[in-house]
């Protein structure tokens, strides 16, 4: 939300505010709504900011005797505040000006010479930049707002941070370096803009991600944790403990809010209690069972939750919001005893979360805990939430081909509305931090290690969330390997979280101009082609119903291979045929994408693009595998001959082997086992067809032996019992 002005004269239109700066510490209103205001007293900067924040628009500025705005060594950076975030802002400004080819300016508390004057109020992310009698003034609503004012100025001069560890500078560097003569006032549309670190691999790179997030105006780092193995979609809580002493000072220097937690609710009722007190645990319809969650109608359960939660909050006092969620299940995880039978999963989750909130406010009255509206708890609860409980909706089982406002995602929109209503309703003109969303645009597990570019979907979603009154937006960064280069979704999310009404096409243009300043249209074309090629995979109906309760005992993973939202292996024959046809058409888009990369130098790609090209390429290779896997399943539906199935299986296996070969080159050794473990699901989906339609009994037995051996290599010390359970 930017209002940018050029210095003007002393007259103004009917809705114009004209400001005079003389000197820097005094700002005087001259005109408002066409009326002279000379009789108003001088205004201090704090009062000026209050004018901006009341919604009255700064349209024009009258500058009295401004200094020459050409940066030279005689300038300094003036900052009186000793706040660590303000100090970070001054250092970032000095370093950024040097990166732009400017002089290394001195830092001073005050100066009579030309200066970049930095100041801030008590709190807030908004900021103002304006020329002044002795230089240029940057003022933040709070220290973090000042930091964003610095980044905005550096961006105006040509710096960009499109990806962690990547700095884009203008070519050639501006000589001399002119400071902008325009005045701007800017503030975020949404109060909480969060990056979720969701794997040890990304926690190991946290310094780069934290700096990138701050420079792109995200203000929250949410460390998503688990204590269970294998830790596929979250950081180990022990890893956060090992890293937090090093990371907390860095987070605080960038003014980052901290949120912490994950699917920890079951951990607050230790499973060892089951032998002595089975009544604390859920009734599954036949018996008490310690497998998931617990019985929320038992007062003893709540007493233990309160005690264990207190210990958890005391052990991790750094968070402002805690996330203590139930098990990650689509259904069949809550209690069905006589006392709980009338309570929906959402009500059972909220009853437990309210107990956590009671324990939390006794320790820290301003801290909060989230209620996760996810899978079977996504329907609005009837239980009244505790004042310290905030809403977090996580619409994972949706169509990512379109935004949440599209008819295809209509049922999820209804769920969202019900949840928002349960928490008091939302106001689109004033989005509330207590209403939040948890999105998956950077989820390497959902998108099988290759998140597709989603510019229009992200923009549509964030506008929808804003209209619904949600003020907290989180994006999950997780996967089975570290990214060689961050997906463009990261940059798009950060920019649109600040201003959801932004133009996604323009943001993609900005990204491409930063990454490929000599050939931005080629990079845009490559990402557009990949985005379009993903459409047949992303286009699906939302999943609303939980699957049938799993059968007791072990399941053969070859007979029942694991699948996720985007696999769609159980659709009707007609839908499968249509999907295959769309995937065949998508090969044309991939060819166009490869042609665009050739314009950028592929296959002998310049070093500056090598990592980004490799990430684009793995997405294209994954789509090739999905198309050939779909072809195999369609042939099964047609009752094709064994020879035709064998030929199709060979093609699909070749495409999967190409993904493995890519990983051998690009996935670091520390992540290889993790990556191959999740890729094993793709292999098992091919094995299912070989097992059911091609192999004889001895070959089927040999197939299981090979897969058992593969898993033993990936999971040292763990016996893959499910595969040992062979059924011929």
TrEMBL record:
UniProt-listed GO biological process terms: carbohydrate metabolic process
Alphabetical list of Pfam families matching this protein: DUF4838
Transmembrane segments: none
Hydrolase found in the keyword field: yes
Keywords annotated in UniProt: Hydrolase
GO molecular function per UniProt: hydrolase activity
Domain of life per record: Bacteria
Record's keyword annotation contains DNA-binding: no
The protein's name in its UniProt record: DUF4838 domain-containing protein
Organism of this sequence: Candidatus Viridilinea mediisalina
């Amino acid at each position: 939300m930017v209002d940018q002005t050029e210095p003007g004269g002393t007259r103004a239109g009917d809705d114009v505010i004209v400001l005079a700066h003389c000197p820097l510490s005094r700002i005087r209103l001259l005109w408002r709504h066409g009326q002279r205001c000379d009789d108003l007293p001088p205004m201090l900067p704090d009062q000026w900011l209050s004018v901006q924040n009341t919604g009255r628009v700064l349209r024009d500025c009258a500058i009295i005797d401004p200094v020459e705005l050409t940066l030279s060594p005689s300038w300094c950076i003036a900052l009186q505040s000793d706040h660590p975030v303000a100090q970070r802002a001054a250092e970032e400004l000095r370093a950024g000006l040097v990166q732009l080819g400017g002089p290394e300016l001195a830092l001073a508390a005050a100066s009579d010479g030309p200066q970049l004057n930095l100041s801030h109020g008590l709190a807030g992310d908004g900021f103002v930049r304006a020329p002044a009698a002795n230089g240029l003034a940057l003022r933040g609503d709070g220290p973090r707002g000042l930091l964003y004012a610095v980044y905005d100025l550096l961006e105006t001069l040509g710096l960009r941070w499109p990806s962690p560890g990547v700095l884009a500078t203008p070519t050639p560097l501006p000589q001399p370096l002119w400071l902008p003569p325009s005045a701007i006032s800017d503030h975020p549309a949404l109060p909480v803009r969060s990056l979720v670190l969701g794997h040890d691999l990304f926690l190991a790179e946290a310094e780069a991600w934290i700096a990138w997030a701050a420079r792109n105006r995200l203000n929250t780092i949410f460390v998503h944790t688990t204590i269970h193995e294998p830790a596929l979609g979250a950081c180990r809580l022990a890893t956060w403990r090992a890293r937090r002493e090093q990371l907390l000072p860095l987070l605080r220097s960038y003014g980052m809010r901290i949120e912490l937690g994950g699917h920890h609710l079951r951990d607050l009722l230790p499973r060892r209690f089951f032998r002595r007190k089975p009544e604390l645990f859920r009734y599954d319809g036949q018996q008490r069972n310690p497998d998931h969650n617990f019985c929320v109608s038992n007062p003893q359960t709540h007493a233990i939750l309160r005690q264990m939660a207190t210990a958890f909050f005391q052990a991790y006092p750094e968070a402002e919001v805690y996330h203590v969620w139930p098990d990650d299940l689509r259904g069949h995880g809550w209690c069905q005893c006589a006392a709980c039978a009338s309570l929906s999963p959402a009500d059972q989750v909220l009853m437990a979360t309210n107990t956590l909130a009671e324990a939390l406010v006794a320790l820290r009255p301003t801290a909060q805990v989230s209620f996760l509206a996810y899978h079977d708890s996504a329907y609005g609860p009837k239980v009244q939430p505790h004042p310290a409980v905030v809403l977090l909706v996580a619409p994972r089982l949706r169509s990512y081909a379109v935004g949440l406002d599209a008819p295809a995602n209509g049922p999820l929109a209804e769920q969202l509305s019900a949840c928002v209503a349960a928490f008091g309703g939302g106001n689109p003109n004033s989005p509330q931090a207590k209403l939040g969303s948890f999105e998956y645009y950077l989820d390497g597990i959902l998108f099988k290690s290759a998140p597709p570019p989603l510019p229009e979907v992200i923009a549509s979603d964030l506008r929808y969330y804003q209209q619904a009154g949600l003020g907290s937006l989180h994006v999950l960064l997780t996967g089975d390997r570290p990214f060689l280069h961050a997906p463009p979704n990261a940059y798009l999310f950060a920019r649109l979280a600040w201003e959801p009404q932004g133009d996604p096409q323009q943001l993609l243009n900005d990204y491409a101009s930063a990454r490929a300043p000599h050939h931005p249209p080629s990079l845009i074309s490559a990402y557009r082609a990949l985005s379009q090629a993903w459409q047949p995979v992303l286009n699906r109906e939302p999943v609303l119903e939980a699957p049938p309760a799993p059968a007791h005992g072990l399941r053969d993973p070859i007979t029942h291979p694991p699948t996720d939202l985007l696999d769609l292996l159980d659709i009707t024959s007609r839908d499968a045929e249509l999907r295959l046809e769309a995937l065949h058409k998508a090969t044309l888009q991939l060819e166009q994408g490869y042609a665009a990369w050739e314009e950028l130098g592929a296959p002998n790609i310049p070093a500056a693009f090598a990592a980004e090209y490799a990430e684009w390429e793995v997405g294209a290779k994954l789509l090739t595998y999905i198309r050939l896997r779909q072809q195999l399943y369609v042939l099964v539906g047609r009752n094709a001959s064994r020879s035709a199935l064998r030929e199709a299986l060979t093609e699909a296996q070749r495409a999967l082997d190409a993904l493995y070969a890519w990983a051998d080159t690009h996935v670091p050794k520390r992540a290889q086992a993790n990556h191959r473990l999740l890729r094993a699901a793709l292999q098992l989906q091919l094995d299912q067809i070989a097992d059911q339609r091609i192999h004889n009994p001895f070959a089927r037995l040999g197939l299981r032996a090979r897969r058992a051996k593969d898993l033993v290599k990936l999971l040292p010390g763990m016996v893959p019992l499910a595969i040992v359970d062979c059924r011929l």
